[in-house]
Amino acid sequence: MSPRAKAQRPGMHWPALLAGVAVMLVVSVDPRALISASPGRTHLAAALLCWAMSAALVRGVGFVPAHPAGRWLLSAWASAAALAGCLAARFV
């Protein structure tokens, strides 16, 4: 393996992994946290939360897709944006 390839090899991203595990545990322990008075908003919040959790877990274990679209959709920044969107849909 070339030195450049070794330098670009991703590793564990602990903040993303911990965020993904925290979301997974919260939703597993108390799924009622997703329920709101508006069913459409609850569905949107759940979808965004699942995206945030998936992206955080994928990036947290060190996997970075080769395709740019997959790399963006499963990045730590996309996870943070989806989590912020979930919180906005749920509480605003």
Short description:
This protein is mainly alpha-helical and 92 residues long.
For the structure shown, list the relevant keywords.
92 residues; elongated
Shape: elongated
**Which H/E pattern describes the elements?**
HHHHH
Strand tally: 0
The major β-sheet equals: none
Distance between the termini: 50 Å
Low-confidence stretches: none
Describe this structure in words.
- The chain has 92 residues and is mainly α.
- It has a domain at 39-92.
- The chain is built from 5 helices and no strands.
- The longest helix is centred in the middle third of the chain and has 22 residues, at 39-60.
What's the structural blueprint in terms of helices and strands?
Layout (H helix, E strand, L loop, with lengths): L2 H6 L5 H16 L9 H22 L7 H6 L2 H16 L1
